Amino acid sequence: MMVPIRCFSCGKPIGHLYEKYQNLIKEGKSEAVALKALGLERACCKRMILTHKDLIDELMKFSI
Question: Which of these, 27, 31, 24, lies nearest to 50 by C-alpha position?
Fold first, then answer.
């Protein structure tokens, strides 16, 4: 599924940060360093990025 546009708890926009986070992880940065580079300080916003599971590719296998 898509990354939530806003944090469920505080309402901060985070949807635009997920792709940048993925790129930082692919470059070999740790999760903590990547989150710091994105400017995520609150635990709730970090949770939204860290626990997201991208399921769209798995769902596309099934037709309606």
Answer: 31
Domain boundaries, the chain: 15-59
Give the Cα separation of 15 and 63 in Å (integer).
27
Helical residues (DSSP H) of 1-64, grouped into ranges:
18-26, 31-38, 43-50, 56-59
User: How many Å from the N-terminal Cα to the C-terminal Cα in the chain?
Assistant: 17
Q: Is the pLDDT of residue 43 over 80?
A: yes
Q: Residue 62 corresponds to which amino acid?
A: F
| Average pLDDT value for residue range 1-19 | 90
State the pTM of this model. Answer: 0.80
pLDDT band at 6 (very low <50, low <70, confident <90, very high): very high
In this structure, which topology does domain 15-59 adopt according to CATH? Arc Repressor Mutant, subunit A (1.10.10)
